[in-house]
Amino acid sequence: MEVPINNFDDIRPLNNDEVKDAIESLVANEDFERAFRYIEPDVNWKEFSETMRSFKTKEDFKSKLAYEAVMLVANKTTFSLTISGRSRLPKDKKPCTFISNHRDIVLDASFLNVMLYDVGYGMTQVAIGNNLLIRPWIETLVRLNNSFIVKRNIPVRQMLEVSKVLSAYIRHTITETKESVWIAQREGRAKDSDDRTQGSILKMLNMSGDKDFLSNLMELNIFPVAISYEFDPCDFLKAKEFQQKRDDPEFVKCQRDDLLSMETGILNNKGRVHFTLTQPINDQLARLDPNMEKNELINAVATIIDKEIYKHYRFYPCNYVAYDMLTGTHRFSEHYGLKDKKQFEEYLQGQLDKIVLPNKDEAFLRTKMLEMYTNPLKNFLANQE
């Protein structure tokens, strides 16, 4: 499927010719300054602005400012940030489509990129939903930082064309510009941490190919990534949303909710954070029967991605405690001590106390939060059977 390259203009990252103007617009923006001071309250804005203006290319911006900002967040809000499976990266730095489960709106791709950069692989382009571009400076910042825009909440009649352009852009990036791409396995985060690849994502990736379904996906070199956060700072916000949707099926989040989730996820404690580069799946795709019925084939590919993620989670005491609390058993008691259990119970109550609702159902909210910490373990166990 041929899509003119100029159709990418409103979704692509900024190019180097646009860097100077983008930086000028950022350093002059009071909202951007205010947001940056959340992360670094003592910043000397004049010196910072001069540093920003010294960047002439996107690579300068990404490898210096963006890298340092993400590591600052990691140092302030995580106990550790680690990665495994580096030996599975292509030795020739062949570009890949990294598909991962999705925990944090901003940091999943940001953390992955700084760790890929550290091991010499290079940063990816990042898919970001336009629902998160709440302020004009946010769009400027993310496009300067090599993000491309995924249009969400569009009329049905436009959806097909938008998906075709997005698919073509991803394929163009992988096969022509030779850059890797990160995309979540589903639209939005799995609020209950029951991570499952949406067939619609795979259908979108296939649209731009000119071969059969499996060959089109293999051309994109899909590489699943398993993300494990010890603590999810947004767990209480996700639980709150579950009750709001339970009580009002028409409930829809507003932009303020998304902004709060971004701020909460960036600024608060995550404990230990681990990324596992699982295994590129082309060999597994090559073993599938291309003559399978289309939906069956899509489900088979989604299952391959999911299983790679499930078997490469990293678990922490809180996951085992949550499982035993939710099931009323002691199945995993050898994986935690009394201190671990007490600390998690106190953490859980502290998060529940942050939820403000007129008809707050604490028992329901507690269950939803326990499910968030239990579901990855349940999926891991189911994958062993």
**What is the CATH topology assignment of the largest domain?**
Glycerol-3-phosphate (1)-acyltransferase
- Summed up, the helix count is 16
Low-confidence stretches: none
**Backbone CA Rg:** 21 Å
The mean pLDDT is: 94
- Indicate the structural class: alpha/beta
Strand arrangement, largest sheet? 1-7-6-2-5-3-4
Residues in helices, as a percent range: 40-55%
Task: Write up what this structure looks like.
The chain folds into 2 domains: 16-231 and 269-313, Glycerol-3-phosphate (1)-acyltransferase (3-Layer(aba) Sandwich), CATH 3.40.1130.10; 232-268 and 315-384, no CATH class. Helices cover 52% and strands 10% of the residues. The chain contains 16 helices and 7 strands. It has helices at residues 19-27, 30-39, 45-53, 58-77, 107-118, 136-144, 156-175, 199-207, 213-218, 235-247, 255-267, 282-286, 294-310, 317-327, 338-353, 362-384; strands at 78-84, 97-100, 125-129, 147-150, 181-184, 222-229, 271-277. A 7-stranded mixed beta sheet has the order 1-7-6-2-5-3-4, sandwiched between helices. Helix 6 (136-144) links the parallel strand 3 (125-129) and strand 4. Helix 4 (58-77) crosses helix 5 (107-118). The longest helix has 23 residues, at 362-384. The radius of gyration is 21 Å and the shape is globular. 35% of the residues are buried.
